[in-house]
Amino acid sequence: MPWGSRGNHQPNANGNDNGKFSNANRNRKNYSSPWKQKIAQQRKSLPIASVEKRLIEEVRKNDILIIVGETGSGKTTQIPQFLFDAEFCRDGKVIGITQPRRVAAVTVAKRVADECGVELGQKVGYSVRFDDSTSNSTRIKYMTDGLLLREALLDPYLSKYSVIIVDEAHERTVHTDVLLGLLKRVQVARSNSIGDGRNLNNGNKSSPLKLIIMSASLDARTFSEYFGDAKAVHIQGRQFPVDLFYTRFPETDYLDAALITIFQVHLGEAPGDILVFLTGQEEIEAVERLINERLTKLPEGSQKLLPVPIFAALPSEQQMRAFAPAPSGFRKVILATNIAETSITIPGIKYVIDPGLVKARSYDPGKGMESLIVLPTSKSQALQRSGRAGREGPGKCFRLYPENEFEKLEDSTMPEIKRCNLANVILQLKALGVDDILGFDFIEKPSRTAIVKSLEQLFLLGALTDECQLSDPVGWQMARLPLDPIYSKALILASEYNCLEEMLITVAMLSVESIFYTPRDKYEEVRTATKCFASPEGDHITLINVYRAATDLLEKRTMDTNKAKSEKVLRKWCKENFINSRSLRHARDIHRQIRGHVQQMGLKLASCGDDMLQFRRCLVASFFLNAAVKQPDGTYRYPTQLRNSWAGPSGLLAIYSLCSKVIHTLQIKISFCYLFLIAFTFTSKKKNTLFASSHNRALASGEVVQIHPSSVLFRKKPECIIFNELIQTSNKFVRNLTRVDNLWLTELAPQFYAMQN
Ligand SMILES: Nc1ncnc2c1ncn2[C@@H]1O[C@H](COP(=O)(O)OP(=O)(O)OP(=O)(O)O)[C@@H](O)[C@H]1O
Questions:
Q1: What are phi and psi of 105, to 5 degrees?
Q2: 439 falls within a domain
Q3: What is the pTM of this model?
Q4: What is the ipTM score, two decimals?
Q5: Does residue 271 share a domain with residue 222?
Q6: Same domain, 155 and 196
Q7: Is 391 in the pocket of ligand 1 (CB under 6 A)?
Q8: 74 C-alpha vs ligand 1 centroid, how far in Å?
Q9: 78 alpha carbon to ligand 1 midpoint, in Å?
Q10: Where are the residues of the annotated region Disordered (predicted)?
Q11: What is the pLDDT of residues 663-713, one digit of tens each?
């Protein structure tokens, strides 16, 4: 591969003059063993070590501080320790650090516990969805931003925290953005409660909440303005240089370019592991196979190369394999999605290969359509990726595009909140007591259409009342479940339809990337191999059949006390049946977790056995927004909800939300409720005419879609279907579908498919 190179040697901060810890560090454990001394030495050499005192002063002086510092300078691991040493955890208070990703929260917490010489879960811990490693003595707590949002449901003042650090804020995940708005409110509420001399929840004493917003690639000005001209500090210097290399010409096949580069590094560069950024599970698994194939062609005696995948859908213990040292004699090549892009240090990584692409969510609110698309990364993402090298020594980053392409990249990624369905966010905000969603202080407001469409969706799902409040119990139950609202509703309904066991399996199987492994152009082979699971009713029941077959197989093997042996049998069975064993294992894990949730909520856990009629009806009642009807030309159409966003419930909700803000201040809420009800009656009638009063007509005016070739209903082409996934390649395809009776739409979802009177 032709490489142009541009050295990017940045000042090495090893030579920083200070290198001394502040007085507070004298109380630390005595680093006696060589390992502890090494860690202490490493900490001292971090660029951030020289500014500890100044940073602490700034935190004392400012309630909100924005910190920007190079990747690897020590922000995530060191600042919480500095704050602890400076007694920000007096009175049992906790320092909370949020991360956009769980893998970062877990691995950084482990590292910091090591650095402090304590057991994980004691002074230092982490908490992520379904996995809590904290105790009453935890004072430095790493967690996902989503988890802190959930904590706010139980403790609106976040009263146990003295400092909250929002790390990697540049990622602008939807959770980060909502959290920022929420933290602003909490900070004001905490200050007011001090003024009033009140105590917070749980009898905790009122104290101000300090906020720190951090990243290596942050647009400090945007954040500073959002927080009322908050102070921003920049930490100079990085630990080790990373040389950047670009291709001379654009690559037509980036996967092939990545493969060639992997082997060029493996065969030509000094020891050190490789980290490659790819766009998703399927791509990672394809590259893993290709590496293994090419390895067989290398001359005997060549150095060994071990591919290790890491992506979000991989069970945590498998993700952790990426962090384990390569076996002796091997070089490790980690194949990662952007899960490994920020915050983490993967020991051993010296080389980064970055094709410059990322799979991102995209949402068309007009059509109510959410999809995943592959996009070029932003400059800030490219910087984060190269920053995964140069953390333990000098590194190299190979960008698989020419340098002038880099200049054309956007500076930062478009905030997720502007490109996703907001139903979940709104549900969470409502549960947090935020009534006026359109008036919520977002750092960047999502579009009015997106908010209104999501309100409309929640309204149709029965999560919101006519007054735009969370409905009791459905809306509150939905807010409690850590799932997409549409899936939460499906579980709640399934308990009424006596098929919760089946729906739990369905939701778990739909939550993982792809259960069937379908090599390109091998659909027929897969179809033959998977015939024994295929249900004439569609993919949902097929997925249930696969899950149950795997469970039966494992139950038979429980006679075998040897877990590894039964795992091996399952893997073999998966391979023979073109089933992705990783996805299946992940689905089993999710199933176990959400089953626990619904049990706690007291939902009725019943099975409909082999009578799948109830289950299919429940699918309609739950996923009615995703119905499609066959057209004479064999394509399908599905409704894009109300096309005119100022008519029907969406318009109503928009008007309600807008007016409620004004009216709220005028304190004439009661009469407004009446106004709302009258308007609702009016628009309900209008809805009938808008849909031409027949579901078929509504569907006929919607989007054109086709059944994906991987579906068991690809050839059968039933009249009416319910689907769960819409993907856009050359055409728009629907995946994961079930045949339903089109009369069920009006019967089971009259709120959407209104019949003409
Ligand atoms: N698990 C680990 N193993 C070895 N060294 C580590 C580990 N975690 C952190 N380090 C060391 O600590 C340094 C600082 O890491 P830290 O995550 O605090 O940096 P950061 O400034 O937050 O980086 P980023 O902006 O990339 O998140 C790393 O560059 C590395 O040298």
A1: -60, -45
A2: yes
A3: 0.79
A4: 0.98
A5: no
A6: yes
A7: yes
A8: 6
A9: 9
A10: 1-38
A11: 443 433 433 443 443 344 334 433 332 232 333 333 445 778 899 888 999
